[in-house]
What we know:
Bound molecules: adenosine-3',5'-cyclic-monophosphate
Mean pLDDT: 84
CATH class of the largest domain: Mainly Beta
Shape: elongated
Structural class: alpha+beta
Strand order of the largest sheet: 4-3-2-1-5
Largest sheet: 5 strands, antiparallel
Number of domains: 4
Number of strands: 16
Amino acid sequence: MRTAYRKLIPPLILLAALALLWHGFPQLARSFGRTLDAGTIAGLDTGLAALAWLTAALLLIRLLDVALWQGLVVRRTGIAPPRLLTNLVDVLVWLTTMVIITSYVFNQPVTGLVTTSGVAVATVGFALKSLISDMFSGIALTLERPFNIGDWVQIADGTVGRVAGISWRATNIVLQNGVTVHIPNGRMAELILRVFNKWRDELDIELGYGMDEEQAERILLSAVSGLPDLGAHFRPDARIVAFGTNGVMWQLRYWLPDYPSRSDLRARVHHDLLRAMHVANVTTAPIQQHILFERFRPEELARHDTIAAFLRRIDLFKLLTHDECEELAAGLISRTIPAGTMVVRQGEGGESLFLIREGTLEVIVGTAGHVVAQLRPGSFFGEMSLLTGAPRSASVKTQTSSVLIEVSKERLQPIISRREMLAEELSRILAERQQATTRLTSASGAGDDRAASSRFLSGEILARVRSFFGLANAQERPRTAVSG
Ligand code: CMP
């Protein structure tokens, strides 16, 4: 760069020499024994001034070349500016200098000259309009960098290609079939570009209503476990997007490192998904048709959904066999409770558990009415008093009209005494809820090791439950494993 500045030296020396001459010429002439008349001095003055302006213009052009074109522009964009642009600027500098010389040095009117050169510049500018627009767009694209060389972008006609380079006039994009497209920068800057750096692909699949969400998630996510790990922000996920006529529409979303790998990785995900479905013995949702006979209207069909069938569907009773669900369901009834009804009150006695078939309820603690939880269909409440004999630990109120099934201690006792894991599961949930209530209602709620203390609490509760239900303690009796 230093050597580039050397070309400024000649015009600088020339300028200095002209200044010296301008100041010292009359004395110099006198020392040679000649006196100069006023006309000669004025002529010399004018000549020297015109020469000085021309030298200054040359200096400015060289300075622009070194500092702006080769310096700033090349450094920032990495591309040498086109000759046409630099030449145009040079011409502008010369024209301006001519106008200055005509006006200030020769004291001539310049209106005509300015108009003529203005028209000339405008004509040239208009003729090169698109070229100039491309050049400026090229500068903007290189400075702003909405995409980088090597990025995959989708252009207006929908084709996708890799950016191979940006010149002053055009952006070069190599399509997937190897064809290179040159898009003028002016057009490129106007396009709505889709840049594929890391990007997400989706796979939609309809799975039967019979498959539970956890199994569906396990199967779907196992199909993307072999994809490259792109970091915490790019984890795959599986989500329900719609309920179809035949099944649940799931969407598996996973991230791809770049565009070209899309096809291979998509094929791999499909392959692995099919394999996971084979191994788990599941298929996509079969086409279903419900035929309703005249005497079975939908509400009558709904009534045929027995309480035993409902019990089998909820997580808590998954451990029970078909017959045990029938046994538990015998004599139970569903009751519809209006919104805003207090179903249990904190502090009251009670020995029954409520299963929520439909509706939403809230759990309220203390006189201040602190809402600690919201309970939804498939959940239950009242297990604390039922299992331990303690008064109700909270009030539970219906938020919406709800359908509840009440299960008494007497009805649950024979099942619990046979199915010890049911007591364990209830004790675990009870301990978790107690901890959550304490955490939400006390200021210093955060425990040191919640999981450990929850396990300890659940052990303690289980011992209380065993004695309340008259069950033998774990040490006294071998633990019965549960089988479906
Ligand atoms: P029980 O104490 O018999 O009556 C009130 C019920 O509210 C209680 O049993 C639990 O079933 C329920 N409950 C209390 N605290 C919570 C909580 N934090 N989350 C969910 N349910 C709770």
